[in-house]
């Protein structure tokens, strides 16, 4: 099957939607499909590229954030996108959002062949983006309402709509979306992420002490609330043997490093910077626990990676995280901003080895149905249904 994927975020962007799109394209190709991705170029100009064996047509873009995110300039690009669609002649189109690239792709598809079915997957929450605009509080709700209205306008006419979790589907329905929304996990490669990937040499590479590791991996941006995790580290008793490793970069990185200095916890914290994909499995495998405080996760790939590596999770009780983290089973949930409870759960898991092992084993049970092969199979079934092939 010829599958065209469009996304406003793709390699080398660092975020969940980008990673999902990269993996979806790669594994569909591995299943024998002919896949083309239309996404922001890595430069201000059109480009034909190949990432991980998948063809990509890049649309002119400009950088807007310190960690490498790029946005498409939605002028004078329609003709090239339409021509690319005509040349590829897809059986089905899969949108990974409703922004500039996907809107142009829809127009191009309609010009080429109005009968081509279009599937959409939503990774969008305005709460993840609104703080970048630095708007007065009085305007934030209006902008979020406009964003959801724009989403409905693009996604309502599609042939099928998915989102990663039931919580995310409920969120979409709650904003007046009229058609069925199906929850399909982002999926995880269980052969890539597992406890067998343990390689202690990763400690030397990142200058990590020989102590049990508490891990966070992700962007260091405002909505991730990593400052709450640092404040919790301050409250953990000094006799608890652990070290907090923070993998990632973002706009909050300097502020978080200053906060760690102010809290006088630099001896318990290491900022790893950006961790490339090839190092992640080993980093998870040498860790003992994973933590996250972001309230705007529609699923959370890094939590899935940590669970597949056999780690218990300490996570905020918000949006879709409780679908992965079952309180008291494979980790603990804390209420938003409850720094004291975060510290208490860190203390408990790093002083009770049996509990930590037990919860890590439960993480493996919970994540098992989320294998990437199952995810790809579900999308293939949707493509077959909408194309009637």
Folded structure, characterized:
The chain has 389 residues and is an alpha/beta fold. It has 14 helices and 16 strands. The protein has helices spanning 16-30, 78-88, 100-112, 137-155, 166-173, 201-205, 226-235, 253-262, 280-286, 301-308, 321-324, 339-349, 353-367, 372-387, and strands at residues 2-6, 34-40, 47-51, 54-59, 61-63, 70-72, 92-95, 118-121, 160-163, 182-183, 213-217, 243-247, 269-273, 289-292, 313-316, 331-334. The longest helix is centred in the middle third of the chain and has 19 residues, at 137-155. The termini are close together.
Largest sheet: 8 strands, mixed
CATH fold node name of the largest domain:
Rossmann fold
Strand order of the largest sheet: 3-4-2-1-7-8-9-10
Number of β-strand runs: 16
Corresponding CATH superfamily of the largest domain: Glycogen Phosphorylase B
Q: Which value, in Å, is the CA radius of gyration?
A: 21 Å
Give me the secondary-structure category: alpha/beta
State the oligomer: single chain
Runs in which pLDDT lies below 50 for 5 or more consecutive residues are none
State the helical fraction.
Answer: 25-40%
CATH architectural designation of the largest domain? 3-Layer(aba) Sandwich
Shape: globular
Domain count = 2
Distance between the termini: 9 Å
Provide a concise account of the structure shown.
The chain is α/β, with parallel strands linked by helices and 389 residues long.
